[in-house]
Amino acid sequence: MTTLDNMSAVAPVGYRLRLPGPTEVPERVRQAMARVVVNHRGPECKAAIGQAQEMIRPVLGTANPVLFFASSGTGLMEAALVNVAGPGCRILVVEHGQFGERFTSIARAMRIEVDTVAVEWGRAIDIAAVEARLREVDYRAVVVVHNESSTGIIADLAALGALVRERPTLLIADSVSGLGGVEMRQDEWGVDIVVSASQKALMCPPGLALASVSPKAWRVIGQDDGRAVFYWDFRRALKSAEQNETAFTAPVSHIYGLREALAMIHEEGLPAVLARHARLSSALRTGGAALGLADFCAEGPRSNTVVVFQVPKGLEGSTIVRRLYQDHRTVIAGARNRLSGRVIRFGTMGTFDAGTILTDLLHLEDTLAKLGHPVVPGAGLKAATEHLAATA
What phi and psi values does residue 77 have, to the nearest 5 degrees? Predict the structure, then answer.
């Protein structure tokens, strides 16, 4: 086998990336990233960073400067904590899925004192339970995942922001799998730090992450000059952002890709982008229900960027995932947590349309039938098509 053959085997013909991240990268973004690499301190890169900052602020719903890092989303989860808390500080983490638990793990590794509000997976966050904890303890921060991609539930950031607005407590939100597909109004809702990353609804490859920090959070950050932080130092990053630079080597190609992806979002119109995500994710849920797949979420608010189905009795999630890839080159996710084998997850984010959803359902119906699950032929397509027609 030649080297070229080895390379082509990485992505076989017909490959469909339908994960809840990383997601398919549009051709326009791939072409933008293929441009010549320029000096990361030169005028070309500075212009791209400035334009990306300007275009992403409306997506975040903020007037804040936006800090870019070469990183995964998890890196910015850690960065959000290390800039406002340290050993001996106490935070409250809302755990309503895998990534809320990840926040707890990060904080404990940093020797931050952590209290948790544990929510049954698939259920909405109990805002009253969070409020009760805030009455008992002066927390440095409430920490939550905006769009919990392991369960398909959205956090009510507006309600959480209202709880801390008149308190010194900060609100930190991970919107890695939400931003660009789920509405974010950072300033209006009182979210003090939002972190996100490139590889989901922002339609870029993994490798670029960002943070938006409120004036309230900056005051907390500025009170501690002795905090042990270097690469993740938001103060250092802010000084560079004010010059349209990053503190350390900028991921130049990713910045170009993000700028192009944001141009696509603004060309479609942000309200239209958000409405498309809501409509198509709902169509997938409707079609899945017609195939006998129950929504894992017992109640709303449900995600617009990931759909989580319960696996029918007698089947196993990883078997469905493998068979979809084997027969259709459609790549979806199972679960690598307490839900292993019990759910399958589709990404409904980024560059996708009604044809994408209908193809998902066609492949899913075929796979379920081959695995012995009783399905009415065409039921999923019919239900989704009727839903799309009714919501056009």
Answer: -60, -45
User: Contact 200/174 with Cβ under 8 angstroms?
Assistant: no
pLDDT digits (tens, 9 = 90+) for 60-108: 999 999 999 999 999 999 999 999 998 989 999 999 999 999 999 999 9
Half-sphere exposure of 21 (CA within 13 A, CB side): 27
Spatial contact of 220 and 84, defined as CB atoms under 8 Å apart: yes
| Nearest Cα to Cα of residue 182 among 170, 196, 172, 167 | 196
Q: pLDDT tens, 230-285?
A: 999 999 999 999 999 999 999 999 999 999 999 999 999 999 999 999 999 999 99
Buried b (16+ CB within 10 A) or exposed e, 229-253: beebbbebbbebbeebbbbeebbbb
- Report how far residue 73's alpha carbon sits from residue 75's, in angstroms, rounded to the nearest whole number: 5
Residue 68 DSSP code:
E
> pLDDT of 97-153, one tens digit each?
999 999 999 999 999 999 999 999 999 999 999 999 999 999 999 999 999 999 999
52 neighbors 262 (Cβ within 8 angstroms): yes
Cα 323 from chain centroid (whole Å) = 26
Asked if omega into 22 is within 30° of 0 (cis), the reply is yes
Determine whether 329 is exposed, middle or buried from the number of CB atoms within 10 Å of its CB (0-12, 13-18, 19+).
middle
C-alpha dist (Å) from residue 176 to 204, 271, 343: 12, 19, 21
CA angle 133, 134, 139 (to 5 degrees): 110
- Residue 315 contacts residue 367 (beta carbons within 8 Å): no
pLDDT tens column, 354-368: 999 999 999 999 999
Cα–Cα distance between 84 and 88 in angstroms, integer?
12
